[in-house]
Each structure stands twice: as structure tokens, then as C-alpha cells.
From TrEMBL:
Organism from which the protein derives: Pseudoalteromonas luteoviolacea (strain 2ta16)
InterPro entries: LysR-type_TF_proteobact-type, LysR_HTH_N, LysR_subst-bd, WH-like_DNA-bd_sf, WH_DNA-bd_sf
Name of this protein: Transcriptional regulator
Keywords: DNA-binding, Transcription, Transcription regulation
Residue span, HTH lysR-type domain: 6-63
GO term, biological process aspect, one: DNA-templated transcription
Family, per entry: Belongs to the LysR transcriptional regulatory family.
Gene Ontology molecular functions: DNA-binding transcription factor activity; sequence-specific DNA binding
Domain of life per record: Bacteria
Amino acid sequence: MSSLNLSLTALHTFSIVAKELNFTAAAGVLHISPSAVSHQMKLLEAQLGMSLFHRKSKGVTLTQEAERLADHVNKGFNLLEFGIESTKRANTTERVVLAVIPSLLEHWLIPKLGDFYQQFPHIELQLIAQDQLIDFNRHHVHAHLHFGHGQYQGYNCTHLGAEWIYPVCSPNYAKELGKNAELLSYQHGIEDAPGIIDWNNWFSHQSINMTSQPVNRGFSHVGHTLTAAKYGQGVALGWHVIASELITQGALKKMQFEPIAMPFSYFLVTPHQTHQSNALQCLLQWLQLQFADSRPCVVCDE
């Protein structure tokens, strides 16, 4: 614009006059006097070296050149307004990229996000499903909601909550449950490495001797077994935190066994020597509140 030596104020006034086709009406929109509008239009015509209006007793009409100019000027001001608003939003919106173990993300975190969005409308949260601890040097991620021992060299690890395990199934499956229940298993070492509790561990902990080999149906992730259990396909070893929403909704039912504490917990992991933004601190505090009431009762519901 500077190379054209045109007045931005005069161009803006022109865009309004082109819509109103009347200097007095344009002056009302701009909250200036009609004479000021007239002066700016004369200035713009002088700078462009062309006439822009056919002046009449009641208003004006645009010349052909002015009609073409009005189209470009209006598009330009729309683009300028969009750029300014985007800049303002970027200045007020804080972005956090959070990696989360997949089953916790799908079954526990996503159902709770409405509360987070309502409390922190200024935070733009991007979520990434990630099994193993993410490589912060290779990925632009601010934190990882991870399950493990919480002792990672070079990282800050904030403890969020413990985890327990117990059998779950759908209410209808529970009514028809017999000796030959189908057991739903997940692949160890993906989300729980190295805190493994499988069906063999669970039977041993409960002092149950299996007289026959049960039917096992395998999946890659804990969340998959919970979904299969919800649809009446067998009994899953439910992680309490991950299964809690499905249990609350009545889609799954806890069976009459004491929960077993898993040897590892949930941590929010961030790199050392990195600035923790206000948005990340808000997210951490919110997560701590969500985990606060996560401990199950010692005796499960019947």
C-alpha cells in the first residue's frame, strides 16, 4: 500500500460509500460528517487520478472503474479484518498438545472433555493416542498422560492416580454367566508395560484353580476388551479408571471380586527444563481433580 501512496482511511470510506451510494448515509455509518466523507473521496480520486462517482442530486453512482475498485477493496478489507481477528485469537488462545494412552483417551478422557472445554475456552487442546512414552525430541508434544513407574530420566513426572483391575462384563452377560465364560484378553506390553496383570495372574491372586481351559479372545488394547465386553462377548479384566465411565453408564457391571492394585500408575510426563505454560498448568490441575475420586470401593457391587 505504501508504494501506491493511497490513504487507507480514504479506501475504507470509499468501501462504505460504494455500499451506501450516498455520502450522508456513509457519514452516518462511519460517524463522521458528510463533508469529511466528501473530502476523503476527493483525496482518493486525486491519488488515483480518476473519477470514481457520478454525482447526482440524491446520492452518487459508481463509475465502471470504481465498481471494479470497490470489489477489490471490499475483498481486501475482509481479508484484513480476518487477519486481525486471527491475530487476536492467537494472542489469547493457548495450545496444548497432549499424548494419551489410547484406551484412557477413548474411554475416560474424551467423555470428560466437555467440562474442560467449558472451564478453559481459551485453551486449544490437541490429543494424540500414543502407547509408549513419546519421544519429545521428535514430536511436537507438550506432555504425555502415561501409565508406568514414573521414573524416567530427563523428564518431570507428576503422579495423577493409581489403577486397579477387576473383572467386568455386560449386565445381560452377567445374568447368563456360567462356568465356561469367554475371557477377553489384551496384548501385554503395549499400554501397561511393564505392569502386567493377565488372567493367569488374576486367577492366582484369587486362588482360583481352573479345571478347564477357558476360551480366550484377544485384542491389542485394554479399551478393545471393554468394548467387546459391553457387547456381551465375554468377561474383561477392566482397569478401574478406564472402565469407570462405562460402569457409570450401566454398559458394564463390576463382578464380585476385590480389586487388585496394579504395580504402576498414571503420570503426566513433561521434558525437563521446558517452560510449563499457564495452559499446561491448568490442564494438570484439571486432570488431578478428575483422578481425585478414582479409587474404587474395596468390595465391588454385586
